[in-house]
Amino acid sequence: MCIRDRSWAKIWPYRTPPLIIVVDPKDSRVIYADVFKTTDGGRSWKQIFPFKCAFCDLAVNPRNTEILYATFWMKGGKVTGLCKSEDGGLTWRKIFDHLAIPIVIDPRRPMRVYVGGEGKVYRSMDGGDSWAELEEGLPRGLIRSMLIDPINPDIIYAGVDMAGVYRSEDGGETWSPLGRGFPDTVKIMDLAIDPSSPDFLYAATIWGDPFTNDYGLWRMELPPRRPYHSVNPLGKLLYMWGGIKMYKGINSLKRR
Fold this sequence. Notes:
It contains 1 helix and 19 strands.
């Protein structure tokens, strides 16, 4: 069948449109759309967040997909806080009480979570139990979008209102502007890199001057990055110790 002969099927039963869509990385039948969830590919839905609000962003732990993080705004437009669920959205607890919008999870170290706020990035190394404020090099302005580099997760990109895109190469500790060309009025709504061809960074923008084409989709060629390599000295030490112990055991058996 030709692609243009296919048709769209509406699977959303509510009047309010969803602002975000997240698919469970382990089960494609599980979809989160705003504060609702389906476990059967969209045939039925249920509300999973108890408050009258909309999600700003939602992130799923890639290893344990029962763990969710959500930033949200309450009725009236107030953006506030970060909540966490450890049972697929059945129950939630608030783990962070500052203004925040984007959430990203390190795919190789999913206990490491980043949240973008007003002129700073918050990082947790323990799945949200504690947070560090990281702002060195970041300008004032709301961070609306964040992205972890698919080649090296220590490289993070952040879209800052009225300032453009900033990059960190050390897990958020320090930041510097990435390239030039954005107008002063731009807001970076989303960032993307094709994992199979990660040479370009894409930025979706709004609030530029419509008569000068400042809004829309932008692209920038990225500099070469070194792939991420994880080294665990303790693991190597235990491996060496285990090897020596095994070697000695084999020798003692042979002597017997």
